[in-house]
Amino acid sequence: MFWLEFTVVLAAIFVGARLGGIGLGVMGGLGLAVLTFLFHLQPTAPPIDVMLMIAAVVTAAGVLQAAGGLDYLVSLAERILRNNPDRITFLGPMVTYFFTLFAGTGHVAYSVLPVIAEVARETGVRPERPMSISVIASQQAITASPIAAATVALLGLLGGSAAKFGFNVELIDILKVCIPSTFIGVIIAAFVSNKMGRDLDKDPEYQKRLQEGLVPPPRNAGADSAKVNEAIANTPASAKVAVALFLVGTILVVLFGSFPQMRPEWSVGSDTRISHIVVKSETEAKQVLAQLKSGGNFSDVAKQCSVDATATTGGDLGWQAKGKMIPEFEKACAKLKKPGDLTEVIKTPFGYHIVKFDDKRPAQNKEKMGMPHVIEIVMLTIAALMLLLCKVKVSRVVEGSVFIAGIQAVIAIFGIAWMGDTFFQGNMEFLSGSIKGMVTTAPWLFAFALFVLSILLYSQAATVRALMPLGISLGIPAPFLIAMFPAVNGYFFIPNYPTVVAAINFDRTGTTGIGRYVLNHSFMIPGLVATFSSIGIGFLLVKLMF
């Protein structure tokens, strides 16, 4: 049955990726329908928090674009590139990296890729070199941006529901690993890219295009510098204000994520004291429950039967704050009314449990506002301020490329992540037995799984939301999952992602392209080097930091 269900998931991903846009999301919904109605898997909760965070960030980025802020940033980047043409293979990816880091979306690279291609051609640098690594840099920066959809998805998992499994991750924990690891990985790949292919003056394809008049002779690299400076000088004040506001929003998200004490807090609900007995099989759990119901002492039975470390203390789990228990415990304990009440058998990734309600008291610890709510509030506020202060037309926001691409990502995550969650949770017993020992011994194998799935999904955020819950349930340490985060940048592998296609078309010399065997394209080597260098450096950093 597992393999039939797995085939449904893969088919939905494959067809959805071929459809593109919202096709990925709606095919995920179709796959979920098959899993639910045909195979009777219980659907999990849809990823509402992740979707709302992405929607808020995309709204702010869309307003920035409508206000002219992105055009202003592109002009600044163009001036930097034209003033340093001989360093284009290194400055190009730096520009696209920091653009994406700041904006939270790799689609901002579209605006600067033509500039990189022309500056390289005008200075005699083979455009394939800076173009290939610049596209890869724009993808790598997604997993370092504090407001990227993939980052907020990971934070929502490691800092939200996963906290119940002992994961207590803040935004700063992700950033302090992923920013240096991805940036260094990009620089390493830039050095590799700088050796790719023949120099432009010796490239037969380019020389052929020159002779046939398909491309004009190269101009002086500084020919358009005056125009760029003029564009920057004539940038409306409203565009500069929008950029400043968006930067403030990004900084606020980083500060609130890095310093939890800055967030408001409240006393919510009550604390519950519980004890549990955990055994390996459902049959044994039912026998234990029957023994307890017939008058057996819970503490004594726990010491005799429980396979958990709490057996020595009679299964005592101590006081548990609302929202901090394992979800299955939280749901079952809500039905218990008085001390001594027992749950029925509860299945979790750790085994089969019987939980006893011991006591209740007013909440002792205050609950801080979660980062999902912080990101949503901050980015919606910044969007509102840009609309009011920069006099942006709302109609222009929803028509912009950034907003359209972002909303498509929300729909994709809605369907695909929901389907993936349902599949993995419904088959957790099988997966735990087959995979847990393997990935615990060699965590990098899970990074390989993330990489392969990202090739299929064409979305870092959808990959995170679909597969990271499995890594959490398998008990992979949170720092390792953070180190493996850049593995979700695998969608360069098949050369049909929009930024890859755009880069090929922007390079008029013909040096950036797809090889005879499809996979031997210009982006393969830089992409593999950057991705796996980032993962390796990430593992080194978590060893030093955690």
Automatic annotation (TrEMBL):
It is found in: Cell inner membrane. GO terms for cellular component: plasma membrane. PROSITE patterns: PPIC_PPIASE_1, PPIC_PPIASE_2. Residues 269-359 form the PpiC domain. The chain crosses the membrane at residues 6-39, 51-74, 94-120, 174-192, 241-259, 370-390, 402-420, 440-458, 470-494, 523-542. GO terms for molecular function: C4-dicarboxylate transmembrane transporter activity; peptidyl-prolyl cis-trans isomerase activity. Gene3D superfamilies: 3.10.50.40. This is Anaerobic C4-dicarboxylate transporter. It comes from Geomonas paludis.
